[in-house]
Write a structure and sequence with these properties.
single chain; two-stranded antiparallel sheet; ATPase_V1-cplx_csu; V-type proton ATPase subunit C; acetylation; transport
């Protein structure tokens, strides 16, 4: 007893969906019972024109507020993005320094480098760097990722005989 062609999907995510269904009055209880048997949640919707009008006004007010705040936000981001990026790179440099001292000890005798290889040359670069610096950490050749050594966290990141941190500068690609 559903009104023909009245079912509409309003929203869907990974594990649930929201549907609108129009029913005849005499079939509401039967529909609710059958839906609960199939593990659906049924909620009533009562049309109230005053609430709908208030919601529409709220949406237009929020849209105008968003448009007003967008310009100053963009200007603020242009000014402060460079400061945040510089701080982020400094933190990466501090991590390289600390990791080098912890791995190789004192006195500090190392050179930090920033490399940007092509994707097709990445494997070859890793092989060359491993050959050049395998003498620095003899345990790196013996360690495999299946071994669980406390403090190394090999399951979370790869381990090389040199200190390696990835700096992903493509900040426009969002990974959800």
């Amino acid at each position: 007893m559903v009104v023909p062609r009245s079912t509409k999907q309003l929203f869907e995510d990974n594990d649930s969906g929201l549907f609108s269904v129009t029913l005849f009055r005499k079939a509401v209880d039967d529909f609710r019972h059958k839906a609960r048997e199939n593990k659906f949640t049924v909620r009533d919707f009562h049309y109230n024109e005053e609430e709908m009008k208030a919601d529409k006004e709220e949406m237009t007010r929020l849209c105008t507020d968003k448009k007003k705040q967008f310009g100053p936000l963009v200007r603020w981001l242009k000014v402060n993005f460079s400061e945040a990026f510089i701080a982020w790179i400094h933190i990466k440099a501090l991590r390289v320094f600390v990791e080098s001292v912890l791995r190789y000890g004192l006195p500090v005798n190392f050179q930090a480098m920033l490399l940007q290889p092509n994707k097709k040359n990445m494997k070859r670069l890793r092989e060359v760097l491993n050959d050049l610096y395998k003498h620095l950490d003899s345990s790196a050749a013996v360690i495999d990722a299946s071994m669980d050594i406390p403090g190394l966290n090999l399951s979370q990141q790869e381990y090389y005989p040199y200190v390696y941190y990835k700096v992903d500068c493509n900040l426009l690609d969002f990974k959800v």
